[in-house]
Amino acid sequence: MGQLPLLTILTFLPLLGGLLILPLWNCRRLLRPLALGVALAELALAGWLLAVAGGLPRPPGAPPGFFLWESAPWIDRFGIGYLLGMDGISLLLVALTAFITVIALLVSWRSIHERAPLHYLLILVMESGIVGVFLALDLFLFYLFWEVMLVPMFFLIGIWGHGRRIYSAVKFFLYTLTGSLLMLLAIIGVYLIHGDRTGVYTFALPLLTQARLGTAAAPWLFAAFLFAFAIKFPLFPLHTWLPDAHTDAPTAGSVILAGLLLKTGAYGLVRFGYPLFPETARAFAPLLALLAVIGIIYASWVAFAQEDMKRMVAYSSVGHMGFVALGIASWTPVALSGSILQMVNHGVTTGALFALVGMLDERADTREIAAYGGLWGKVPVYAFFFLLFAMASAGLPGLNNFVGEFLILVGTFPTMPAAVVIAFIGIVLPLIYTVRLVQEVLFQTERRPLALSDVSWREGAILAVMAAIDIYLGCHPKPLLDLLRVPVGLLTGVGGGQ
Amino acid sequence: MTLLDLWPLMPLLILVCGSLVILLCGAVLPGRYGTVVGVVACLGAALWALQVPPQTTLPALGVAFTPFSRLFIVLFMVTAAITLLLSHDYLCRPGMNGEEYPATILFAAFGMTVLVSSATLLNLFLGLESLTFAFYILVAYDRTRPTSAEAGLKYLLLGAISAAFIAFGIALIYAGSGTLYITGAAGAALTGPTLAGWGFLLAGLAFKISLVPAHLWTPDVYQGAPTPVVAFLSTGSKGAAIAFLLLLLPHLAALGPLRLPLWLLAFLSMTVGNLAALLQPNLKRLLAYSSVAQMGYVALALLSGERGYEAAAFYAVAYTAMNLAAFGVIASLEKTGSRELVEDYRGLGYRQPVHGAVLALAMFALAGIPPTVGFAGKFAIFFAAIRSGEVALAVIGILTAATSAYYYLRVVVNLYMRSAAGEGEGEAPTVPEAAALALASLAIVALGIYPAPLFDLVAAVLR
């Protein structure tokens, strides 16, 4: 397939598209189609890769499991290289990124009037940053993308958000920055320890993971990585930025935050945290599992008490990501595949839920659960999708979240049965608050006379596509699991290798 | 000394002749050609310095043109040129008349050139003092504002004290080592008089780059002095003081007893500077405390041995670009009313998109967010620190850097997330200002994305 630098194109296409907006700043009519076109092109590229990924040969120089690979020198003095690679995990998450970005652009199609060019520019820049995070295999490069994706989200929340938007934006930024700066120290530490031991000074992940870094400093280094990733996750008790950020973010921001940014934390742990410090990570696993379980129970409990729909969905995200963390903690092939699948599932389902709440908010200007009621009769199409995604989020069999949660619990049970038993409560609790939400919003008698219109064809199309994905993955997750088998096998060291 | 010796000295002569031409012409011809002559002289000096073969020494004059001096001469000349571009509009205001100002900037640039190309301690001191004298004048230049005169007085008094410290330190080092040549004097064993000399030298230079506890003049002077002067003061003068240290420290066999004072200076500057900046409602004072903190990071680099010297040199360049951008925007905005408080910048990112974007970029760079040169610089510093075993100080530095993001973000929040009460469209920057801002922003982004050449360069010149 030629010498096209596909990964570089994937990473920088959105950025270039975003920069194209600058000269067209005042041609408002061109902007939306341009931004959407760029995002669709990215999605098409990712979709094409999904289709052909199975047949791609391993490129020369690539580590096992990677079917696309690009490397070039960048800052030689420090052993920093421009290293991009794609295996099944990256591919899935990149495809999710491309998809969610398109959704984010579409849900804000009509709601963004002020400073629209800046809005599209930021979303595209963020897409570049997130794709970069999922593809970078050089620790320095990874850190760079990791930080770059913060800035657009900070602006998205701060400029187009509501409520205490500035407070939330700054809180989001400072929380994540503190974590990632400590990770930067750890990255430098890893580099130096590896260099002193082997004589090869490099930030390249494939080289760093070959030499096992079981030193006295390893727990500290791993803790710094874990801290940075756990904030993004968000793992209890580092989650407090998330409900604020979600509640005050504009719809597109919430969709991207839930659909993508949370995934970067989990991805970082899977790709960097565990492989760099396998033994230490094993030792930390009970702690991670404990925090995950506390997060699952606690978040579901708090979600129950929320009056604001967006806040409720936000807390439910904390709970769902707890499952992902549990799967990673157990580090068995089944649980890990489940976790990665669950990242995709959660991205689509929660993204759809935030979009749904955003649509209500656009129409009635309130997100209070108590304001609604009787939507089932009034806006039937909307209500149908609302019910579907709420059930998917609660883990109804046949819909996608069930598959992920099931795999995580099955995979974790042999190693940590106690955690699984408690986490099981975490499956029941969402059912309770979801049923309550659905009952109050859809079936309760109407409490305020709100003039609501049903979904437009644009909104309907977004929801229909997301619903189709939910159902498809719920019934037939095999293609994605096949894609994950090789990389997960390599990561966990249990079969499935080349 | 022969006529041929004048060849390598030409950069110095160009600067002196340039400023004399400006002064002489100012006496007879009215007009505002000072900026043009000044910029041409600076760029001419920079180009000439690049033509002089490296490792040219003139022992009779105590001058040595090394790759190190070349790099810094070019940096200072560009800084001076940008300052002149930024001041052009300032000088057109009523009550200002211009020719002494560009002439004095050129004198300051001359002092910096002398400093970085000196081979003896005496020349170092002469260079430092001639640039400081120029700044005494520049800081107090705006006679219409009483704060400017007050700032000038403060700077003069503390500057005089620091000069005394440095002179005494040099005398003690001379007494202890028996030579004025940098290589010999700095290489002498750290005992008795030389150690005391180094102590005085450090104390004096701590004033110059405003390290805590010698930082107290900084906020007042930054607030009072004309903004383009602050741009130059915070970049050129600090860069010169860093160059001063970089000329001496690498010759030391080991930091030895100097480690503790440097450690304390770095620690206090990073913590006190960042914490004090959190509370500042005034943007210039905020940037003043931020510069205290930033110099703390440089001190951390200087503590960290060879890699640290490279990081410090890199950071001098990075810091110059970031501060020129920040103060450039403030200077350019001052035309349309007072812009003292951070609050005054509400919604400015939309009314004046160019100014807003450059200021926001500078803030992100100062906070060390990639892909800006500020991040590359901080990375190099923490890298060197951890490498030399200063892990505790590196962790403190990281935590204070995270704290600093709060006040840099405060500026960005005001620029883009708060709306102002009914103000019309703002003015776009003038052509010289636009050129200056564009150059600084370009440096911030380009050196952030691809810092490799500059890293290689500073490593080469420090060898």
UniProtKB/TrEMBL annotation, chain A:
InterPro entries on file: NADH_Q_OxRdtase_chainM/4, NADH_UbQ_OxRdtase, ND/Mrp_TM
Entry-linked Pfam families: Proton_antipo_M (PF00361)
TM segment ranges: 6-27, 34-56, 80-106, 118-137, 143-160, 172-193, 213-235, 255-277, 283-305, 312-334, 340-360, 381-399, 419-438
Location (main, coarse): membrane
Membrane-protein topology: Multi-pass membrane protein
Subcellular location(s) per record: Endomembrane system; Membrane
Keywords: Membrane, Transmembrane, Transmembrane helix
Span of domain NADH:quinone oxidoreductase/Mrp antiporter transmembrane: 136-428
PANTHER family associated with the record: NADH-UBIQUINONE OXIDOREDUCTASE CHAIN 4 (PTHR43507:SF1)
Recorded family membership: Belongs to the complex I subunit 4 family.
Protein's recorded name: NADH dehydrogenase subunit M
From TrEMBL, chain B:
Record has Methyltransferase as a keyword: no
Localization (cell): Cell membrane; Endomembrane system; Membrane
Primary location: membrane
Transmembrane segments: 6-26, 33-51, 71-88, 100-118, 153-175, 195-217, 229-254, 260-279, 286-305, 311-333, 354-385, 391-409, 430-450
Keywords: Cell membrane, Membrane, NAD, Quinone, Translocase, Transmembrane, Transmembrane helix, Transport, Ubiquinone
Keyword Transmembrane attached: yes
UniProt-listed Enzyme Commission number(s): 7.1.1.-
Membrane topology label: Multi-pass membrane protein
Domain NADH:quinone oxidoreductase/Mrp antiporter transmembrane: 119-401
Pfam families referenced in this protein's UniProt entry, alphabetically: Proton_antipo_M
Catalytic reactions of this protein: a quinone + NADH + 5 H(+)(in) = a quinol + NAD(+) + 4 H(+)(out)
Function: NDH-1 shuttles electrons from NADH, via FMN and iron-sulfur (Fe-S) centers, to quinones in the respiratory chain. The immediate electron acceptor for the enzyme in this species is believed to be ubiquinone. Couples the redox reaction to proton translocation (for every two electrons transferred, four hydrogen ions are translocated across the cytoplasmic membrane), and thus conserves the redox energy in a proton gradient.
Family: Belongs to the complex I subunit 2 family.
Subunit note: NDH-1 is composed of 14 different subunits. Subunits NuoA, H, J, K, L, M, N constitute the membrane sector of the complex.
Protein's name according to its UniProt entry: NADH-quinone oxidoreductase subunit N
